[in-house]
Amino acid sequence: MRLCSEKTSPVQFHGQTLDKDEDYWALHVDAQRKMVKVWVLYGQNKFNEALALMHEAADQEDSVDKHPVTPGEVLPARELLGDMLLMRGKPEEALAAYKAALEISPNRFNCLFGAGKAAELAGNTDLAKS
After folding, report:
1. What pTM, to 2 d.p., does this model score?
2. Tell me: the pLDDT tens digits for 108-122?
């Protein structure tokens, strides 16, 4: 039996994972659902609401260890938070988000690049170079 179909909404999929006692996956599904909503809100110029929800999704995703048979998040929420903060002209906050993301997922190119850009914009040229 398939867990979801093309007609299954993210809310239904989250409920189905909970119904099957798949709490680990339910948490990830919920975090991913929130991240999609974040970018919709961002596109609607609801920046404060989007940032608040992205913080929530990042905290939620960070609250569990990586499953042993998965490669990790394709786009970690904490890294996306850094991207969003950088886009909003908050390089110091973005740098903190990127640093936190790198502690969980070291050596991610996009995260290292974002951290370097954030450090440069924050005026920390030595850190940006490293």
Report:
1. 0.79
2. 999 999 999 999 999
